[in-house]
Amino acid sequence: EAQVTQNPRYLITVTGKKLTVTCSQNMNHEYMSWYRQDPGLGLRQIYYSMNVEVTDKGDVPEGYKVSRKEKRNFPLILESPSPNQTSLYFCASSLAGVLSYEQYFGPGTRLTVT
Amino acid sequence: QKEVEQDPGPLSVPEGAIVSLNCTYSNSAFQYFMWYRQYSRKGPELLMYTYSSGNKEDGRFTAQVDKSSKYISLFIRDSQPSDSATYLCAIFSGGYNKLIFGAGTRLAVHP
User: Rounded to whole angstroms, what are the CA distances from A76 to A6, A89, B29, B48, B102?
Assistant: First the structure.
C-alpha cells in the first residue's frame, strides 16, 4: 500500500529535550516536506527536500532541522523544543516539479512541549 | 495580506444541501489550484485540482476558478454526512516548489 508513515503519532515532552519525528514514504517520491498545522493558521511549510541531500527552508524553519540521507526518509529534528512548537505536524511527499501539487500526507504527529 | 484567505467557518448544513466553500488569493501568477479534504485525526488528501481558470466536475463536487477576481470555489451537491471534514484550498507555487494553504473550513453535514 502506498503510504507516508510518521512516528510517533503523539508525543509529550519538556522544553529543551531534543526529539526526532520520523517520516518515511514508499512511493519513490523525490519531493518531501514538513508542515505544521495550527488553528486559524492552516498548514505552514517548515522545510522541504527536492531529493537526497537537497533541502531548503519553508515559511517557518526556526527551531527545526531536517536531513535527507535516503530517498524514502525525511526526519524532522527539534534540537531544543519550546512551548511555541506545540502543534500538529505533517510529513508529505510527491513527485517532483509541477506534479508537486499532489502531495500525499502522513497521519500527523501531535506534539506537546511543556 | 495572506497569500490565500479562507473563511474558517465552521459551516453546518443539513443533509442534501448545496455547500459552497470559497477562497481568495493575492498573486495573479498562480496557475494550479487545489482542494484538499481532511477528516478528523487524519492527514489532508487531494480532492480536486484545477489548472488555470474554469470549472472541473467530479461527481457531486465542482471546483471553480475565477482568475479575474482571484477567487476559487468548491461546490458540493447533495451533501452527505460523510462529507463532514475540513476543506483546505491550496495553491501550488512552482517558483517556490510549495503548496500554499488556506486556513481550512470545517464543514458538518447533519442527517
Answer: 10, 10, 31, 29, 23
Residues ≥6 apart with Cβ < 8 Å to A62: none
Mean predicted confidence (pLDDT) in A93-112: 90
Among A75, A87, A3, A68, residue whose Cα is nearest residue A30: A68
Measured between alpha carbons, how far is residue A36 from residues A60, A112, B1, B44 in Å? 9, 13, 20, 12
Question: Does residue B15 sit in helix, strand or coil?
Answer: coil
Q: How distant is the Cα of A24 from the closest Cα of chain B, in angstroms?
A: 14
The closest of A4, A27, A3, A1 to A76, measured between CA atoms, is A4
Reported as a single tens digit per residue, the pLDDT across A3-41 is: 999 999 999 999 999 999 999 999 999 999 999 999 888
Closest CA to A64 of B92, B99, A49, A51: A49
Computed on alpha carbons and rounded to an integer, the radius of gyration of chain B in Å comes to 13
Compute the 3-state secondary structure of chain B and give helix, strand, coil in percent, each to the nearest 5: 5, 60, 40
CA atoms of B85 and B93, how far apart (whole Å): 25
Tell me: cis bond preceding B8? Omega within 30 of 0 counts.
no
Q: What is the pLDDT of residue A1?
A: 87
Question: In chain B, which residues touch A (CB < 8 A)?
Answer: 4, 6, 8, 32, 34, 41-46, 49, 88, 90, 92, 94, 97-99, 101-104
pLDDT, average across residues B52-57 = 88
What are the residues facing A81 on neighbouring strands? Answer: none
